[in-house]
Design a protein that fits this description.
The chain is of the alpha/beta class. It has one domain: Rossmann fold (3-Layer(aba) Sandwich). Helix content is 38%, strand content 16%. It has helices at residues 3-27, 43-57, 72-78, 97-104, 148-151, 153-157, 170-173, 177-187, 204-215, and strands at 31-36, 61-67, 84-88, 114-118, 135-141, 161-165, 193-195. Strands 3-2-4-1-5-6-7 form a 7-stranded parallel beta sheet, with helices on both faces. Helix 3 links the parallel strand 2 and strand 3 (84-88). The chain is globular, with a radius of gyration of 17 Å.
Length: 241
């Protein structure tokens, strides 16, 4: 069996597990949100703000955060008051559905309406793995360059929502937001792009609103590279904000 055949077999097995997990979570009223980004995008701090905002609204949420080593991010996220667990990948550059299923056993609160999964900081390998998510959100800091979507078309092309982070640094970084939008929509036409800044709180409420809308059954945007295309037959594109 050649390497490509092995990879396809691994992905097929993962997709089957992910589909099963998605059905199980739906059955208990939980929506899984998969957060993807490069290292240093600021997604941990933004997620911490979203978890805290959910707590303020009385929305029961939980989070899994993945890293190759240390539990630093879990400690940071737990300050929000939400249930949090760390997944250590021991060198693996992405999460897989089997890891999510194993970690959720006997841990996920029964009333959790949202499970946020902070994937490993990497826009390559994680983009190929469905984790059983309803929403895949790809984040990018303004310091990373407007051409990032063109460099990582699989990640951005499979996103149900794109989030710009660290917008307070847009000026110093010389970030051309209109060009970024153009590049995003070149690989994922029509996807919504949310501006955010964890430091000021910009976009935190909007991001939580989009997640809660999905929990309530609002059909997500259809990305051209849908992470679970067999689950999108009944979905229509979400309206622009």
């Amino acid at each position: 069996m050649c390497r490509s055949d092995v990879k396809q077999a691994v992905l097929a097995k993962n997709d089957d597990l992910a589909a099963s997990l998605r059905d199980e979570l739906a059955g208990q009223g939980t929506t899984l949100v998969n957060l993807l980004s490069s290292p240093g995008s600021g997604k941990t701090e933004l997620l911490a703000r979203v978890l805290a905002r959910a707590g303020e609204r009385g929305v029961p949420v939980a989070a899994l955060t993945a890293d190759l080593a240390t539990e630093n991010d879990a400690v940071r996220l737990a300050r929000s008051g939400a249930p949090v667990q760390q997944v250590l990948t021991d060198g693996l550059c992405h999460l897989e559905a089997r890891q999510i299923r194993a970690r959720l056993k006997d841990w996920l609160p029964a009333d959790a309406s949202v499970l946020f999964v902070e994937n490993v900081g990497n826009l390559v390998c994680p983009a190929s793995y469905d984790l059983g998510e309803t929403l895949r959100i790809v984040l990018m800091a303004v310091t990373e360059g407007e051409d990032k979507p063109l460099k990582y078309p699989t990640a951005f092309g499979s996103a149900h929502l794109v989030v710009i982070t660290k917008t307070d640094l847009a000026g110093p970084a010389g970030f051309d937001e209109s060009l970024f939008h153009e590049h995003v929509h070149q690989v994922n036409p029509g996807v919504e792009i949310v501006r955010s800044c964890a430091r000021t709180g910009t976009g935190v409420g909007t991001l939580l609103d989009r997640v809660l809308a999905a929990c309530d059954g609002a059909p997500p945007h259809r990305p051209p590279l849908a992470p679970h295309p067999h689950r999108h037959d009944h979905h229509a594109s979400a309206p622009a904000s």
